[in-house]
Amino acid sequence: MLxxxxxxxxxxxxxxxxxxxxxxxxxxxxxxxxxxxxxxxVMKQAALQRNIPVIQPENVNAGEVLETLNSLSTHLFVVAxxxxxxxxxxxxxxxxxxxxxxxxxxxxxxxxxxxxxxxLNGETxxxxxxxxxxxxxxxxxxxxxxxxTIGRRETAGELEERLAAIAVPLTLKIIAQxxxxxxxxxxxxxxxxxxxRRLKKSDGGIDWRKSAQKIDCHVRAMxxxxxxxxxxxxxxxxxxxxxxxxxxxxxxxxxxxxANAEVGSVLVADGKxxxxxxxxxxxxxxxxxxxxxxxxxxxxxxxxxTVRSGDRMxxxxxx
Length: 319
Known about the structure:
The chain is an alpha/beta fold. It has eight helices and 16 strands. The chain has helices at residues 9-16, 42-49, 63-71, 88-91, 114-120, 156-180, 212-221, 298-304; strands spanning 2-3, 25-26, 54-55, 77-80, 98-102, 110-111, 125-132, 142-149, 195-196, 228-233, 240-250, 266-269, 274-277, 282-290, 296-297, 312-314. α5 (114-120) runs antiparallel to α7 (212-221).
């Protein structure tokens, strides 16, 4: 199996409980995070606890890696959120080929961040696609699809966790079909292809010129990483960077609505509620986190920080 993040873990654990033998785990090399601490690799930990060999190549297509994989006499490669592109020589190694567990309804949202982009774009439905891997990114024939509705308040992290669970029985079913020679691959429809590039930290910035509904989608899509953020510009105090954890569109007839207010303006900051003018509609921030502090309900935040009607939320520190 090839995987690094928690999305791959449920399938990895389920396969370990079957009659199949996991002969090895390929996962990304250990990386140093902030403060020179290693990022926790849940896949590596799970494999070592079960005495499954772990390989962490910088380049999965390097000659010595291919030699090692050939020596394992592997029948199938199962990939889930691994993070590298495979060459033809790599894909020729396993007898039954290579399958990928992808968290979207391919060919929509090919790429590294399908869950985030589905929520970001306001999709109401997504799912798991299992497909045969080719050298090009996420282009291979589809073996199975399982759809699910996206919850109205669901974050990317919550949705990915659900999709990881949905992938388990689907993967076991496809492996059984591959063993029996009964799988029926279907080509992807090229005319409906969309992409989901890898997110950057800067993608978290909230553009208040967008509608309240789109900002709601943005905030949910950016959790758990890189998290949505904004700058609170106050007339008589220093600018504050805020991580926004939860917003909800508010009825246009709400108290404090000012149709002439500038986009990003704080319309209500009454000790309990924090309502901001957007490009279309109003957005109420219900949970947030001052930079470097703990997450707070808005009512808690307003008890400790002064915010007034007329203060402004901005995409950048310059206001």
